[in-house]
Amino acid sequence: MNLFLLAAMLGLVVGSFLNVVIHRLPSGGSLIRPGSSCPSCKSSIRWWDNIPLISFLCLLGKCRSCKTAISPRYPLVEVLTALVFCASLAVKGPVLDTFLRDWPILAILIAVCFIDLSHRIIPDSLSLGGWGYAFVTSFFSSHIEWQDALAGGLLGFFIFFGFSWLYFRMSGKEGLGGGDVKLLGFLGAFLGISSVLMIILVSSVAGSLIGGGLALAKKSEVMGYAIPYGPFLVLGALVYYFFGGVWLQNIVPM
Ligand SMILES: [Zn+2]
C-alpha cells in the first residue's frame, strides 16, 4: 500500500482523536469515556457517523439528530493532521524517527494550536508532556543528539522566561504567558538549539503582521485584546521543521 495513503488515513484518524483532546482536555474531561456525543443535543454519535472526514461530508456538516451545524474545526483538524503527516513523510522520509518521534509531537502541536485559539491556554500535559517526550525520544533519534534536545529545551524555556521576567519588571504587566514559555521549551527540545532563534523570529513577525492586521480591521476594539501566541510559535516550529535545512545552509554561515 502506498505510504502516503497510509499517512493520510492515519492522519485523519489521529486528527479525529485530536478533536476529542481539543474539546475535552481544557475542561478536564476524560479522553476515553463517554463516547462521542453531539455538543448541542447530547445524542450519542454512532460509529458510522464518526468516520473522520467521510461522515462530515455524508452528513453535510450537520448532526443527524438535531441538524445543528458541526463545527468546521472537526474536518479542518483531521485534514490538517493528514497533510502534516504526509508532508513530514515527504521531507523526512519513511524512517522510525518520522513515525515514532515526529508524528506524535506534530499531533500534540496541532492540539496546542487549537486549544490556545479557543481557550487561551496551553495545558501543561501537552507542553511539559511534549517536552519530556521530545527529550526522551532524542536518545533513540538519528535526527538529533540528546545534548542538542536538552540544550534547545533549556534555551527555549529560559529565553522566554527571561523575556517575560524583564517585561514584568519594566512594565508591571504580564507579557508572555507561562504556557508560551513552556511551549518554546518543548519546541526547542523537539528541534534542537539552532531552531529556537528561528522560531522566535518567525512567530514574532507573523504575530505582529496578523495582530497588526486585526488591530487595523477592528480599530480600538482589539486594543488590550491579546491574540494567543502559541499558534505562532507552532508555525515557527513547522517552518523550521520543514525548511530548517535550507535556513541553516543559506542564511546562517556555518
Ligand atoms: Zn445534535
Radius of gyration: 19 Å
**Mind describing the biggest β-sheet?**
none
Q: What pattern of helices and strands is seen along the backbone?
A: HHHHHHHHH
Shape: globular
Total helical elements: 9
Number of strands: 0
First-residue to last-residue Cα separation? 41 Å
Structural class: mainly alpha
Integer count of domains: 2
List the helices and strands and how they pair.
Layout lengths: L2 H22 L29 H5 L14 H20 L3 H24 L4 H15 L7 H26 L6 H14 L1 H26 L11 H21 L4
Helix pairs in contact: 1-3, 1-4, 3-4, 4-5, 4-9, 5-6, 5-7, 6-7, 6-8, 7-8, 7-9, 8-9
This protein binds zinc ion (ZN).
Description of the structure:
This protein is mainly α. The protein has helices at 3-24, 54-58, 73-92, 96-119, 124-138, 146-171, 178-191, 193-218, 230-250. Helix 5 (124-138) runs antiparallel to helix 6, helix 5 packs parallel to helix 7 (178-191) and helix 7 (178-191) runs parallel beside helix 9 (230-250). The mean pLDDT is 89.
Q: Can you give me a brief rundown of this structure?
A:
By secondary structure, the protein is an all-alpha fold. The chain contains 9 helices and no strands.
Structural key phrases:
mainly alpha
